[in-house]
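Q: Structure tokens for this one, please.
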Amino acid sequence: MADPASVPLTYVVDGMDCASCVRRVEAMVGRLPGAGDVQTSFTQQTLRLALDETRTPREALEGNLRALGYVPTLQVMQTTPPTPRAGDLAAPTVPGRAWYATPAGRLVVLSGALLLAAWVLGFLAPATSTAAYIAATLVGTVPLARRAWASARLGEPFSINTLVTLAAIGAVLIGEAAEGAVVVFLFTVGELLEGVAAGRARAGIHALAALAPRTALLVHGEHTHEVGADTLQVGQTVQVNPGARVPADGRVLSGTSSVDDSPVTGESVPVVKAVGDTVYAGSINADGVLHVQVERTAADNTIARIIHMVEEAEASRAPTARFIDRFSRVYTPGVVLVSALVAVVPPLLLGQPWHEWLYRGLALLLIGCPCALVLSVPAAVTSAVSAGTRRGLLVKGGAALEAVGGVKTVAFDKTGTLTAGHPAVTQVRGLELPESEVLRLAAAVESGSSHPLARAVTDAARAAGLTVPAATEARAVPGRGVTATVEGRPVYVSAPTHAASLVPLTGLDDDITALESTGHTVVILHDDTGALGLLALRDELRGDAASAVAALRALGIGTVMLTGDNARTAHAVAAPLDIDVRAGLLPEDKLRIISELPGPVAMVGDGINDAPALARADVGIAMGGGTDVALETADAALLRSRVQGVVELVGLSRATMGNIRQNIAFALGLKAIFLVTTLLGTTNLWMAILADTGATAIVTANALRLLRWQPRKGA
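A: Here is the predicted structure, written as tokens:
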């Protein structure tokens, strides 16, 4: 907790381009007296903290950041959306600059110019070339030495800057200044490439943050006026004109239009939105005027929640990343020790030439730089999270991303997960009336009710283009049905058992039994004299449920449905899926079953009662249309609310882990090759640093391939 006297500060930290940079900044700030509530974001290059300036002035904090090689810019809090989490006032914008205007870019230009000048002097004034190379090496090394000293002073003595500084200065001391200058230049180029690659990985998230419009048309009676989108409050109504972006998450009150959700959910086909449908901030309204009731403020809309989940993904590192971090803490000092032994032992004990073995020791320092190895996991995870986000697959962390690819069983909730989550009329049968007349009268009786079954009947009548008459004296009988006066006579929509107690259901018993055995809910339309017809309703499977379950089975993953519904309904719904069924479950039953299933287990759900199971499972996956509790509890979310998204998550995870394995193998394999060639005396200094820089560039480029990841067709 921050001290009450602390001041909240937000900085954009230019140069914080990798996961190790973020952890270096966090470690430094964490040691400052009076600093608390430290939050860093690689995606936005921001540092947020609460600072007691009576104990540590902000100038000291900024000085430490600059000493580490970063450029802090204090942000003035504004009221411009989108906001990454509720409670913040604004999402700071990272200032875009050309590569040559960044600290890494300026160092590349400086070291490159000095190296070029020394090379030219070698032709024009050969006697001065050695001095020119020494000057080029030392001048280019000064910024690295400063960072190395700052890192050592702040608790990290064996940084990459330390290794390169030792190698460059050692090259000068043994008379290899030209190679020292090349080493410094190639290292700075590698750092610049890493920053450029990091910028590409962040670009998708920055583009997402810019989606929400800054203004909205607020409706007042029959008039509208323009307001800031960030000032909208829950319950207000906004007008969205054709071609405009939706300013807030909400529900359509009036109008019908095609809406392009692809900027937010990745859904490629525009979706027709009508009264009652949900729309997302940042979506594009195509061809009709919509009136939308605001359901989330700018601080809590879908875009803000996505950004928050990406930030959580940065904070939650994959187990592989944690292992490599621990390994590198031992590996880097080990490299320094081995390099020292290689440089000193052969001359002292075996009488070998000092120059030759000092040279090999310096080359080993450069080969041992852990850049490519340390970068191999976070670069892949960052790219994968960005790629998934653009396709509506939100993953909260590297740990979840790694885990989902290894699951052995996926447990699905039924309602709202495998099914659409709301009943629909599937059959209408008339006795003395045509089917359209049965539906018309039933819709009139149900028109005043908000019950899900009532909404399903009225929606079916609307979809059929029927004119529904007005109903009076409407009255609900809980658990039994609804009655109303329609066109001058009492009409009822009743459950079969209640209807049978009022009128004979001659000829309907077999139909009712058959429909209920297939998971339908049946209601009877009747008047005081007899039955007029029946309607069958069912919460239908999502269109992609069967193909998704089959795809998981093809991937070697078992599936099971967990539901609180009765066994007859559950088995009827699950029949087309060929999936194991556990029915009649309470939330605590789901917890018990998840612990018994072959693991690791992923749980997919959308409701409040799914939250405990989502938390208990090895990986919790929430459907995007689910409750806030489910979304907060889960490790991942499917924004498109498609069951196929589970298959895509598994595919993304496996592609990411394959990419990581390639990166680690390449980084370690290249180092092993150059270790042998260095000990044999065939590797010079510039080749050593080129090997490290090249490995970093190749690992980064390989990780960036994940930005173009696409789900396999037919998966």
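A few notes: The radius of gyration is 33 Å. The longest helix spans residues 644-679.
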